Amino acid sequence: MKNNWNSKIIRTFTSVLSVAKNREGHCINCGECCKLPNSCVFLRNRKDGEYYCSIYTIKPLNCRKYPRTDNEHITKKTCGFKFIK
Ligand code: SF4
Description:
The protein has helices at 2-14, 61-64; strands at 23-25, 43-45, 51-53, 81-83. With 85 residues, the protein is α+β, with helices and mostly antiparallel strands. Strands 1-4 form a two-stranded antiparallel sheet. A two-stranded antiparallel ribbon has the order 2-3. The site of iron/sulfur cluster has 13 residues, from loops.
């Protein structure tokens, strides 16, 4: 749990930086990044099983840019984004 909080703090500070150019793909609304380290209070679940953000238009940079780099990508198993080597 401590590591999840540490990586959240790091993602918050580095969110002012650019998204890596080698990122490909798109968000498939799995919702996993919205549960790190705890489920976000603005996370909502649709009947079809997909998740969405209830404050999408004003969501913070660290959410908007996730995953910003391969190193910060901690939801690789379910995420629709990937980083090309
Ligand atoms: S982990 Fe990836 S696919 Fe899932 S909600 Fe976050 S950005 Fe979207």
